[in-house]
Amino acid sequence: MRIAIVVYDGMTALDAVGPYDILNRLPDTEVSTVGVGAGPKRAEGGLGVVAAQDLSAVTAADVVLVPGGGKLGAVMRSERLHEWLRDRHATAAWTASVCTGALVLGAAGLLDGRRVTTHWRAREHLARFGATFVDERVVVDGSLVTGGGVTAGIDLALTLARLLHGDDIARAVQLSAHYDPQPPFPPVHPDAAAEETLVIVRDRLGPR
Amino acid sequence: MRIAIVVYDGMTALDAVGPYDILNRLPDTEVSTVGVGAGPKRAEGGLGVVAAQDLSAVTAADVVLVPGGGKLGAVMRSERLHEWLRDRHATAAWTASVCTGALVLGAAGLLDGRRVTTHWRAREHLARFGATFVDERVVVDGSLVTGGGVTAGIDLALTLARLLHGDDIARAVQLSAHYDPQPPFPPVHPDAAAEETLVIVRDRLGPR
């Protein structure tokens, strides 16, 4: 089983590394990173994450996953990346995105007519790719699996673990990753969040 | 505010990157990576994560965080790292670990007499550093903040966000990171896990 995670300048590192470390626990599975050009990419905040291979070296994968980022920039315009995503999607068992990685799949033409989720701040952008936003943490539509923002990558990866290997293995992966989340605040749906919280998110927080 | 996250060969990347991406959202905060030698480190599974600076370049930090890994190897024996951790701990507002990163703090002599948590599979190792295991997701004891395994780094980082900036900012960071976790299986305490699940964790799963 081969899983390829796309990494690029400006991505949110956790979008990629959450799934990486969950999927890396699966038996008989090789998880690797791929980029437009091999070598270090500069994620949000400046963190260097290495693309182990250039796109050209990955000619088949069972799962392809695209993380998101706050400023997608070049990956929304890279015809080379989009063609590679279309080619891999054609034969992959699952094509996945986390957060605004869905918009990259959209730019590649893979979301037309599909049910999709993304980071709550990016919901309104899905329509221009012909996708219908679904307000769920993880959405499976055919061979397309999309997750909400950032931390949703962990739930998405466990969903993939279940789809690939069944409940017993996925349950063990969840335990192995000690995934018994305890957010300090009761999670609030973005539509129900206090205006002052939304203002802080918009005006005071990174990523920079 | 300066936050330094130690990265090293063999670490679990998510232990470092979960906190990185949460803390990177804080206002007026610089989060960077530091290692025994600058440059790419090879996390479990082979993922390359770059140490932006050598230890010698980070002579003060408000927060120091050490991720864990399945095979700690060199970081348990690095006198240079241990001395650096002791020096930073002496003036840092918070010294933190995720998962088996606690054992690295222990090797540096920072856990004696402290209340500490770690990955459930590493619980029994804390006693040899003079620490008392506390069966909680995140434990704050003085200026020491320790988290459970792997995914606990997100809860730990949000706890740090709250300690550093208060509830309003931390709540906004949680929303910004879309942290409304929905594990596919109801979390089970390791002591209550089915024997067959524990056998899978021990014998069939990575990280490799």
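The CA atoms of residues 54 and 134 of chain B lie 33 Å apart.
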